[in-house]
Amino acid sequence: MNDSYPANKPLLVYDQLTVTYLSRGIRIAILESLSLKLETGEFLAIVGPSGCGKSTLLNVTAGFKMPESGTIRLKGKLISKPSLQIGFVSQSYVLFEWLTVEDNIAFGLQSQKHSKKEIRQIVDNLLEVIGLTAQRAYYPAQLSGGMQQRVALARSIASEPPVLLLDEPFSALDSETRIKMHELLLRLWTDHNTTILFVTHDIEEALILADRVLMLEKNGKPVSTRDIPFIRPRPRSIIHTEQFQIMAGEILSHYETLT
Amino acid sequence: MKYKAQQFLKICAPFALMIFFWIIANRYSGVNPALLPTPLEVGNALKEFAISGNLLWDILWSLRRAALGLIFGGLLGLFIGTITGRINAFNWLFSPLFNGFRALPPVAIVPLVIVWAGLGESGKVFVTTWAAFFPVWLNTHSGVSSVDKGIIWAARSLGARGSRLLFGVTLPAALSQILVGFRLAISTTLICVIVAEMTGAYVGLGFRLQISYLVFRVDRMLACLVVLAIIGICADRLFSLVTTWLFPWIKLRHEPR
Q: Is residue B67 part of a domain?
């Protein structure tokens, strides 16, 4: 990106973040005093039992919701509203069904000062990467779930956001499609040097994809992170290694004791 | 080709059956033939009606009144529905009022409109505008106010705001419901145009129906009804053809992949 934020400082900084919601007139904390730093190009997976505030964390990061207290800073600037700096892909592929595949991908680019030629070039390139060049003029309703999610990914990454938030993006897909989506995501991640926050309830998915796992506890109580030591590229066969199984077991037992 | 012929037959058969029973009723029921003319007589009345040139003018005037109402009422409904659907203060202020008016059968305002505006064109267009407004307003309002939050979030995180968010995302996302409103508006304006013309006009299908009634020409009355039915069907078909052509994605959504 063309600004002068020093590369050695963390890209995304959460400081004492607390998020609450109102339930029958009572404020209930869904995230409590979360502090966290993410480096440029880091891949963080977020796991935890349902209701632990995983999705809330992403919604606040995206600027859709405001925190009760504490701050989130991207490159030193406070996040206060949604912007092209932060891409977002959710579980339900919310594509714009009135736009074709290519217009969906171009949507974010059209919000910026890009020439038609530039947009065309970026879209062509992404269509190639997601393997949907032949379906560029299709409407979302004509695509399978996996294809739609590929378009959603391409759409969010087209304008090169420094941060990409993924909220259980592949949980509605079958396992074969999901493996392909993992490969695609990792490729986009390395190509674009994006910082990714990836919410999942699937620990294997977290361990295969991420550099680090953030474990949230029910009602957002203190959290812990763990580095994932496996060397990239990670073949899927590592699932069967002892080290992988032990780590998965540890994380699972960590949040099983909490529920 | 064979399939098309089959489809054609499927549509025609019920009508053929109806005409068959109609003829039977004429012949054997002993009903006064002045009350129930034969299909042939109705056909002749229709022919006479067409040759005299009245048919064309009546259709054009009725359609003109309906179309003007549809345009004014539709645009107004679209505009106000978007505002009440998006801005809470306007919703509180206007929605109860409109819901009250909406509960009124639109034809019930006809006598009042005649008293206020006389028998001229403006009164008739007022009635059709009134009739078209409410279904379009209601459906636009509910379509716009219930757009999936995820869609809006996705658009905002892709940098859309202001008019692009409204015209590029909110309205297209609500479009299929807005079109339902227009479709309902077409049928209600047709109802209202006929009632308005029956109660006072010098041209139009409703007027023709009324004067045929005054001179007790049942064949002509039935001829008018046939024309009205055809107009109703054509308007609905045309609307669905035009919207599918303009917005091909709406239909796709309802088809299984």
A: yes
Determine, yes or no, domain membership for B7.
no
Q: Which residues are CB-neighbours of B56 under 8 A, at least 6 positions away?
A: B50
* Contacts with B153 from chain A: Cβ below 8 Å: 62, 64, 82, 88, 90, 94
Specify the pTM: 0.86
| Residue B35 located in a structural domain | no
Residues in B closer than 8 angstroms to A65, CB to CB, are none
C-beta separation of A186 from A180 below 8 A:
no
State the Cα–Cα distance between residues A241 and A88, nearest whole angstrom: 33
Whichever domain contains B80, its CATH number is: 1.10.3720.10
Contact A156 B169 (CB under 8 A): no
- Total count of domains within chain B: 1
Mean pLDDT for B230-249 is: 94
Residue range(s) defining the domain that contains residue B184: 47-246
Q: Which has more pLDDT, B8 or A103?
A: A103
Set of chain B residues whose Cβ sits within 8 Å of the Cβ of A98: 172-173, 175, 247, 249
The mean pLDDT of B12-30, rounded to a whole number, is 89
pLDDT tens profile A144-197: 988 999 999 999 999 899 999 999 999 888 888 889 889 999 999 998 899 999
- Phi, then psi, of B102 in degrees rounded to 5: -65, -30
